[in-house]
Design brief:
- The protein contains 10 helices and 9 strands.
- The protein has 205 residues and is of the alpha/beta class.
- It has one domain (2-203): TIM Barrel (Alpha-Beta Barrel), CATH 3.20.20.70.
- The strands form 3 sheets. It has a 4-stranded parallel β-sheet.
- α3 (47-57) links the parallel β2 (37-41) and β3 (62-66).
- α2 packs parallel to α10 (191-202) and α4 runs parallel beside α5 (92-101).
- The longest helix is centred in the last third of the chain and has 12 residues, at 191-202.
- It is globular.
- Belongs to the KHG/KDPG aldolase family.
- InterPro entries: Aldlse_KDPG_KHG (IPR000887), Aldolase_TIM (IPR013785), KDPG/KHG_AS_1 (IPR031337).
- Pathway: Carbohydrate acid metabolism; 2-dehydro-3-deoxy-D-gluconate degradation; D-glyceraldehyde 3-phosphate and pyruvate from 2-dehydro-3-deoxy-D-gluconate: step 2/2.
């Protein structure tokens, strides 16, 4: 993923959708709140249809897919109209497929060796996942010395309270968070509440 895309907003909503009918109003609420980059995870059967609808009906949204694990996931994401890809890890086969897709992508890394392997292929923007479980802010702070050219989007266990600490690091461009779209709010159609959470997150930048 280009660093320019990472800098569109301080927080990337990590969205799990069980009903594609909620995709468009949810995306509009996030965009209206100031968060145009939206990651829809491929964890539910509704995910790809949700991406299709957002891509077609919310032009101000930059929608991509997350939990991309296989070349088939890459192809399906491209077909659905995704504009970027996010993976939990970065195997050589998956990296090949993401590079061939023509889309921006954010390869998942959790160790120094994984970060170096991604950097060897010319990629300077990485996902750090699972952020809290893999060492959190102290780990990324330590990485900045030996790997000064890499920029990260930490995701996994990050909250509205811990996000500012990550964003203060010079090698963090943005964070990914699921707190912006609580399952109960999505299920109940409480899009004003989601808009408010998005606005508060956008203000972190």
């Amino acid at each position: 993923m280009s660093e320019k895309l990472l800098e569109l907003a301080p927080v990337v909503p990590v969205v799990v959708l069980h009903d594609a009918a909620t995709a468009v109003p949810l995306a509009r609420a996030l965009v209206d709140g100031g968060l145009p980059v939206i990651e829809v995870t491929l964890r539910t059967p509704a995910a790809l249809e949700a991406v299709r609808r957002i891509a077609a009906e919310v032009p101000d949204a930059v929608v991509g897919t997350g939990t991309v694990r296989t070349p088939d996931d890459v192809r399906a994401s491209v077909d659905a109209g995704a504009r970027f890809l996010v993976s939990p890890g970065a195997t050589p086969r998956l990296l090949d497929a993401m590079e061939d897709s023509g889309l921006d992508f954010l390869p998942g890394t959790a160790t120094i060796s994984e970060m170096m392997a991604v950097a060897e292929r010319g990629h300077t923007a990485c996902k750090f996942f699972p952020a809290e479980a893999a060492g959190g802010r102290p780990f990324l702070q330590s990485v900045a010395g030996p790997l000064p050219d890499l920029r990260f989007c930490p995701t996994g266990g990050i909250t509205v309270d811990s996000a500012p600490g990550y964003l203060a690091l010079p090698n963090v461009s943005c964070v990914g968070g699921s707190w912006l779209t609580p399952a109960d709010a999505v299920a109940a159609g409480e899009f004003d509440r989601i808009r408010g959470l998005a606005a508060a997150a956008a203000a972190l930048g």
